[in-house]
Structure formats: structure tokens, C-alpha cells
Amino acid sequence: MATISDDAASLYRRRFGTEPQTTVFAPGRVNLIGEHIDYNNGPVFPAAINLGITLCAGPSADSQTHAISAELGEGGPFSLPPELPANSSWSRYPAAAAWAIGAKSPLNIAVSSTLPAAGCGLSSSAALLLAAATAWNHVDRLGHTPTKLAQLCQLGENHYVGVNCGIMDQMASACGVEGHALLIDIPTLEITPVPVPEGISVAVLDTGVPRSLAESGYNERRAQCEEACRILDLPSLREANLPLLDLIFDPTVKRRARHVVTEIQRVWDFRDALAAGDADRIGSLMAASHASLRDDYEVSCPELDEIVSAAYAAPGCIGARMTGAGFGGAAVALVETEHVTRFLHSVEQYPAPGVKGVNRTFFACQASQGAHIVAMDRPKVSL
Ligand code: GLA
């Protein structure tokens, strides 16, 4: 599967009739463990992957930013600073980045993606925000660090786009390190890059089920966690522990809080298991994480549950679980590299439950560098 797409450059030439001056690649991410705990101040363990968004940019001939996507077509033009309310097209994402980082120069922008369809849970929206923010950071010489860009992109997604996400996806896309997963402690945003051990591959198992309920379900889970904090009189569920949860009488709120408390502990245990190369422990922690997301947090779906079971039954599987917000989307698996082809083949054979015609995609990927300017050869294509 191609890493960086050439499509953005040829699209740019076709649409704007000139050569792009800046090309950025911003990766998607998988999260190995630590799900739905970034907004509860817990630690998370994502890795940027070698699939993502390529963005080509150059100066605009007028005062507006014009954007086109290989997958989504023309986006609505916007001026700087972008006005609220955001336009309804996909270009509200680059507009949100421009709004949050204080972009000055109107640009022509062409983007293309090597991620499976938007909504697969590999953070294409964070990648798009980071691609645009990295381009403007470069063009306008704003000097923001990757962590600062991630914070500003989250601000843009929360307040400009209006999606109430945490900061994990933006941090992963901004700060990824080749060959490493990132242990990120959310309260300090301290990042510890941890090598993906020799002989272990990361596989993505995309169910093809669109994450249709994701936004409302996500906001509801956040509200339930806030309710648990209110009942326990704690600033965040990071400060909670299992005995304390007996003070919560609402069974749903209690189960949500139990997921958060147990998942935080699983992240620390996973860090130790990964460092020790303890494959059995890695596998049982990922299985427990999936079960907790399915039963206590209720953000899985039958297709994700089936694909995770199929993964555990396939050759070379170390561990598997749903990744990202859930309600559809993808699972992540850690697989013995020598068996990865057989593993993917075996999972592909697994019958898809219920849903017909969904586009399932299974592939291995590499942990990769975060958003960066791409030094490309001068293109050979003439206009
Ligand atoms: C989405 C959000 C993240 C995080 C995950 C769940 O991807 O954007 O901030 O909350 O869901 O772990």
C-alpha cells in the first residue's frame, strides 16, 4: 500500500495550474491501548502510521484559501481568519487549523489520502488538521512545536468544527516517531516513544462499518464520565480507584467509570509487558481492553467483536482490540512479523457478520514519523 500519495501534487497542478510550493504528509494513527481515557486524563498508547494525508499548497491568487480533495472534491473557499460558523464542507478542517494557529497567508490546497475511507477510526480528520497546520506553520514561519500544533488542532476541532474530541489523535499525528508507539501521559503531554519490538508487526483490521453514531455516543460517554467525577467529587477519573466506584449508584455511570479506571491500569501494565517482550501478557491486556470497551463502555459493535475474535484465532496473533472511538471502524492487532501474511489471509476468510456490501480492509502498517514537510523530487509531469 502506498505511503505518500502523488495524487495531491497532480491534483494541485490540474486544479490550480501551477506547481505546489509546499508538500506535507500527516499520518493517521492506531491506538494500541488506552481507549476513551484521554479525556479522563489517563495515559494513551498510540502510534502514527505510514498511511495518512498528503497536502500540497501554494499561494492563492486572491484573498481566499481554495481547497480540493482527491477523495471528497472541492471544499468551500474561506478567508483568513476563517469566519464562524464553519462551512459545511470538508474544508472546515483546514479552516479550523488556520483559525486555531492564526494562519496569515491564503493558500491553494490539494489533499489526498492513503487511509481507508474517512470514518474508519484511523483519525483522518486529525491528520487533515495537522497537514494544514503544518503547512501554515511552515509558510507563515509561525514556529509552533509539534505538541503546540497538536494542542491548537484540538482547539480547532473542538471550537471551530464543533467535535468534542480529546487530544490523543492530534498528538499521535503531530509527534509520531518512526518504529515507535508513543506513551503519552495526557496531563503533562509528556511523550515516551517505545519501540515496537523487533519481530512484531502492527495490523489494521477495518470492518468497513461506518462510525455513524460516533459523535452522539462519544459525547454521551464524556458526559457520563463527567457525571462520575461529580458524584465522586474528583477532578478527573484518573484520581479514582475501583473501591471508590461503589459510591456510584447509577449502574451505567459506574460501568463507564470502571472501564476508565481499569483501562488506565492496563496502559501501565501494557508498557511493562511491551518492554519485557511478554507476548502472552500483551495479548491478555489487549483482550481485556476490548472486553471492557464492549461490556462496560459499550462502544464496540458485532463486526468489531467478530473481527477481534477472528484475529485471536489467526496464526501469529499476539493481541487485538478495537481502536479509536468505536461504534464501527477498525481493530488493531499485534502480529508476529513472520506470520503476518498468513494472519491477514486468515482474517480475510472470516465471514463478515450481518452487514452485506461493507468494504472490509486488512493490512499491515508501520509506526511512522509525525506530520512533516516532504522533500519531493521536482515532478516530471508537465501540465
Ligand atoms: C477519538 C477521539 C480521541 C479519543 C478516542 C478514543 O479518536 O478523537 O480523542 O478519545 O476517540 O480513545
Keyphrases for this structure?
383 residues; alpha+beta; disordered C terminus; binds alpha-D-galactopyranose
H/E element sequence: HEEEEEHEHHHEEEHHHHEEHEE
The biggest sheet amounts to:
6 strands, mixed
Average pLDDT figure = 93
> What's the overall geometry?
globular
Structural class: alpha+beta
- As a percent range, the share of strand residues is 15-25%
Contiguous uncertain segments of 5+ residues: 377-383
Fraction in helix: 25-40%
Discrete helix count? 10
Ligand set = alpha-D-galactopyranose
Query: How many whole angstroms does the radius of gyration measure?
Result: 21 Å
Which sequence of strands runs across the widest sheet?
Answer: 5-4-6-3-1-13
Distance between the termini: 27 Å
Number of strands: 13
Oligomer: single chain
Describe the protein's topology.
Elements (H helix, E strand, L loop, with lengths): L6 H10 L5 E10 L11 E2 L1 E14 L4 E6 L3 E7 L12 H10 L5 E7 L10 H16 L6 H16 L6 H8 L4 E6 L4 E6 L4 E7 L7 H19 L18 H26 L2 H17 L6 H12 L3 E6 L7 E7 L3 H10 L11 E5 L6 E2 L10
Parallel strand pairs: 4-6
Antiparallel strand pairs: 1-3, 1-13, 2-7, 3-6, 4-5, 7-8, 9-11, 9-12, 10-11
Helix pairs in contact: 2-3, 2-4, 3-4, 3-5, 4-5, 6-7, 7-8
Bound molecules: alpha-D-galactopyranose (GLA).
The site of alpha-D-galactopyranose has 12 residues, from helix 5.
